[in-house]
Structures are given as C-alpha cells and as structure tokens.
Amino acid sequence: MSAFTPNFLFYALLIFCLLLAVGLSVAAWRRPNRQRLALRLVAGWVAAAALWLIAYPPARTIPGSRQQAILLMPDYQPDSLQALLRQLGASTQLWRYGAAPTPDTPTLHSLVALREQLPHLRQLHVLGRGLPSDAASVADSLHLIRHGGAAVAGFRAAQWARQVALGKTLQLNGSFAAATADKAPVWVGLRAAGKTRDSVQLKNGRGTFQLRYVPKATGLAEYELWARRGTQVVARETVPVEVTAVAPLRVLLLTTTPGFEFNFLKNYLGTQQHRVALRTQVSKGLTQTAFLNQPTHDLRRLSPTLLARYDVVIADNGTLTSLAPAEAQAMRAAVQNQGLGLLLLAEPGALPRALPGRAAFSLLPRPTGADLPQPVRWPDAPASLAAPLAAELRLQPGSTALATDARQRPVVGVTRVGLGHVVVSTLAATYPWQLQTANTAGYAAFWSRLLAAVARPAPVAAQWQVVEAWPRPQQPTTLRLESAALPATLPVVTTAKQPAVRLPMQQDTRLPEWSTGQFWPVAAGWHQVQGPGTTRQWFYVFAPTAWQATEREAYQAPTAVAPNNLPPTTTRQPWAVGWFVALFVLAAGTLWLEEKL
What percentage of the chain reaches a pLDDT higher than 70? Predict the structure, then answer.
C-alpha cells in the first residue's frame, strides 16, 4: 500500500494537469473571439505546467556536500559563516545549537541524535564559542572542525576540585598567557575570604602555575583567581568551591603503657569531632578507659561486635602481642572481611605475630643517629617536620610509603589486607608537633593522611557529576548520577533564581550504574540537585563571560585541521516552490484578465 500510494498520486496529478491543459486549449480554440488566441493557449499551458511543478519541482545541481554541515554556537561571526558557505557550498546544511528556533535555521540539541539521523555526515564545522556537551561521544565517527578567531589572552587552563573537605588543601593548577608580546612579569594569585592566600610570579608573562589554600569554614565559596601586571589587573576569574564537613571517624586507641603519644592523639581526634575511645592496660586485669563524643561501653575484650563499632584501631606493639587467640582472630577477620583499618605504632623489635599482613613489612634495628629527630616528608606536607624513629622500615612489593625520610626511605607504610588496610608507623613520637605552634598544622595533616589511608571504606552512596567543564546559562547541562539503580522519583534541581525543575533520567546502556539527565539553567550561580533519597549536591553555573580563554583553548587544537579535506561534490537541490506558485498565479491571472477585456 505504501508503494502504491505515491505512484497513484503521481499519475493522478499528471493526468489531471494534462486534462487541464487540453481543456483550456480546447476552450480557447472554440471561443468565437479569436483575438489573443495565442496568449490564452500559452497561459493555459503555463498554468497547467506550474501546477505540476508545484507538486514535483525540478532539481538543480549546486556545489555542496551531504557529508558536511555547519553548527552555529553562541557568538559566531556572520562574516565567518558567509566565508565558510562560499567554500563548502550554498547548500550546506545549517543548525543552531541550543538557541531559539528560527525560520531559516533548525535547532540542534544533541550531536548523538544528529549522527543517528544523518549517518552519511562525516564533518561538522563549528562556528562560535565552545562545543556541544556531547562532542566527545561522537568524536570517533564525526570529525568536528573548529573555526574560531585568534586565541584569547588570559587563563588558558585551570583545574581544581569543585568539592573539598574542610581541612584539606585546595590545589589549583593552571596556565596563563598575556595579551601582548611583552614579556613583563605577571603575578597570579588566589584570593579567598577577602585576602590573597597564595601567589606566584610568571617571569615571562606566561606559563603554568600552582596555587594552594586550606579552607577554614564549610559552605559554598566563590574564590577569585587574578592576574596582575604591575598595578593593573589583567584577568580575573571566579573559582567556586563547596567546602564540606569531614565525616567523623570511629577510632579505638589501644595501648599497654600510659604516655603522651596516645593522650595527645585522643584529645586531637576529639577536637575534630571524631568518636574516640582509649583503652590503657595499666596492669594485668586492670584497664583505664576514656571516651570522647560517644557513650561509654565495654572495651575489655576485642570481640567482633566491639570491632564492628569502629573504623580504625590504633595500637602499639604491646597490645597486639598480648592479644588472646580469639581476640587476634577477631581482629584479623574484621580487617579482612569487614574493612576495619589497623594502624600499628611500631616499637623496636619484631612485628607482632597478630598483625594482619605482617609479611608486607619488616623492621630492622634503628640506624645510627635515628634516636635524634629525622625529617618526615610526604607530598604537600604543610611544614618541615622531624621525629625520632623507633626502627628502620622495609616495605615488600605491593605496599606503599605514606611518609619518608630525607633519603626517600619509608618511615610509614600501608598495605591492603582483604577489604581493609594495615599501616605501620615507625615514628616514635609525634606529640611534640602539637606543642610547637609552627608544626600544629603538620601534626593535623600527618594524622589526617594516615587516617584517610587506613579507615574503613565508607558505604557507597549516590553521587552526582556535572559532565560539562564550564556549564553556562541557556545551554544544556548534563548531570550524571552514579547509583545502583534509577531513582524511584525524579530528582529536583533548585536555585534561588528559577523554580524547582524535575530532572528526567535516562540509564546508560553501557554502564547500568550511570544515569543522566539534562538541565537548562537560566542564570549563573550555585544550583543544587536533590535526590535520590537524602542525596544533596551543589554545582556551579558560570557566567557567559567567565573562563572564555580557557574554554576556547580546550578546543583550539582542531582549528589547525584543514577546513575541508573531503573531495568537492555537488548536490541536487529542488527549486523553491514559491517560483512556481507565482508562475501559476500569473498564468491564471492572465486568463482571468484576458476574459474581462
């Protein structure tokens, strides 16, 4: 039926037009008034032919290719578009990305959909600012060619964690290039809470930089990255960061000897809102206990139930050596099967047999001079620290050094045992750092590093991620949810400048734990996505003028590609129907007017 219908319409209209031409010709021939006979005959034939051509217009050959198209992004230049059309051909298809539809140019919201609709398309020429958010997903089958202007001066690259835990270091890496060829020095700095917190000088007016800052309070922050030449600020960009509270850990401290190390550590962890318990074995059968930020409970025997209450156990040699067989077995099972973390403050001598993963470490007698403070280093250490060593630590393959001495020899190491981790530290005493004002931050950073490496893994929770590096108003922003299943109810995106928007989700066919939704922000600023359940996460939408140089630099490399490396071709394009409608009206009007004369 579908094949029959077009043929029937074709022949039916053809017969109708022929009969119309014959009928008009016969009527003109039989007319008694023979004046203007030729005009009536020609007008009748023209009317019948025009009616046919309206339904089936003829095609013409024009330069152009069905394998290439042009995509107009925001801020494109009309002159560049005209030059590209002259090069590719006037019939080259045009689309506008993420804009209001216009009569002459259709709107495009997805390159993936375009690729499916036009499988013959091979090259897409992009004019204007930026690239579509799903450009990477079609990179293998569709060649995107950028046609941009000269490179914009300013920050060419910038990368930082959009979410930082309180007390952790925010590290911003980037590069800058000045607008002129002048190689005068340029200062680049990070401003937070009303003051410049870190800065660096680029001697030639360009180059890479790294800035650091430790946030002091939780919440949403908008820091400022600036560049200054002399007294003139030449670039300024917003650095949005969400500073989150550190999730409190449950820490059990076990020692056989009262001392400053465990007492200082207990008090420090308590001030950081961790839930801490300290058990000190004063003598056989006699223990002392202390609890911070949690209710008291029995600590006399290490049972599976007790160990399940904690994320980390910090113990000394004497405690692990004196464990009963049942307690040692409970400790080993908790580390291997439940992910409990165990941190041993090693002492001179052999490692306890009850230490899980014991084969990954070995202790040698303390080297000469190690009773004096030795340098302690790790990446991004905030201060120059030193502490005496209890022994020399050797790590087996598969283990990792968390801290080293001046000669890059490990002084703290970690290894994985089943689901958990075991850390061995040879630092005899770190509490003096707490007594020295200059080293207080170093003490906090050291123990934060060790606890982060050894703590029981947190339960996997739903997490959101913004796919675009620079989401902007009036452009689609793709939000990706990593969760075990699709949300039972639609997540909601809220902001102070627009009503709450429900976010339809689509599951990724390749990774079932991923699902994505698209949101169109109307204004710059902070937005929050809520769901599934109690999950809440903030993300920032940048102003249209923010980070222009960085976004353009990210897509500058494809510009060097030849703009048209496909062979020149032609395209058959139908004539505009309007011409034949006008011809029909002219012929019919001639017949009517001639009748009145």
Answer: 88
